[in-house]
Design brief:
Growth Hormone, Chain: A
Length: 216
């Protein structure tokens, strides 16, 4: 997936967005994630063992919303052969706008639900119709690729092929720092910044796609 500078840049921007939003959600929920479902799955197991049924139910709800969002994103891609990345990011941006508005009107639970759904949906940006895709809101796979490609480099493979995956990881970390900082200043209203970035990326991709379609 990270086979061009444009794709690398887009993946890094989206991972940064995911880190930004996840940091906001993590702080707001007191230790649960809005995009990192591996972490939530571990928390679910611990909550079940300790008999914290309310927390376990909340975690199951977050996981279900994320899965539903991922499925919805793939449906958008499969139904929109042209501008599919644009449509996915537009949907994500509008969901985040809805989350920000919901919080503003006092519906914080709905706000979190929309955020989780949006984070699941984001992962469809690089979906091509097969079983795979590029994870954007979780980064373990990128770190695995860094280690694997470093090993190949030591055995005579491409020396710097691991850098795109490293940049993707670093982008998520930077986004998380910014998200935590924004939450300290604006609480859940900080999600407006994430919504703005998603909508700007959607507009940018639409412009590029139209320019490419008009090119001879």
């Amino acid at each position: 997936m990270l086979d061009s500078r444009a794709n690398i840049a887009l993946a890094c921007l989206l991972s940064s967005l995911a880190g930004f939003v996840d940091a906001i959600g993590f702080i707001h929920l007191g230790g649960l994630f809005v995009s990192f479902m591996s972490g939530n799955s571990t928390r679910l197991g611990v909550s079940l063992q300790e008999g914290h049924w309310r927390e376990a139910l909340e975690t199951v709800g977050l996981i279900a919303l994320f899965v539903a969002g991922a499925g919805a994103g793939n449906l958008i891609v499969l139904g929109r052969a042209s501008y599919r990345q644009t449509w996915v990011l537009l949907a994500e941006g509008l969901l985040l706008v809805g989350a920000a508005l919901s919080h503003g009107f006092g519906f914080s639970a709905l706000s979190i639900a929309l955020i989780v759904f949006a984070m699941g949906l984001e992962n469809a940006v690089f979906f091509t119709g097969g079983a795979g895709g590029l994870g954007l809101t979780y980064i373990t796979g990128a770190l695995v690729r860094v280690g694997q490609l470093m090993a190949l480099a030591l055995r005579g493979g491409k020396r710097w092929e691991w850098l795109p995956s490293f940049f993707q990881w670093a982008s998520l970390v930077v986004g998380s720092v910014l998200g935590a900082f924004a939450y300290r200043l604006y609480s859940l209203d900080a999600i407006w910044f994430g919504a703005a970035l998603a909508l700007m990326l959607s507009a940018g991709l639409a412009f590029v796609a139209r320019a490419n379609a008009a090119a001879p």
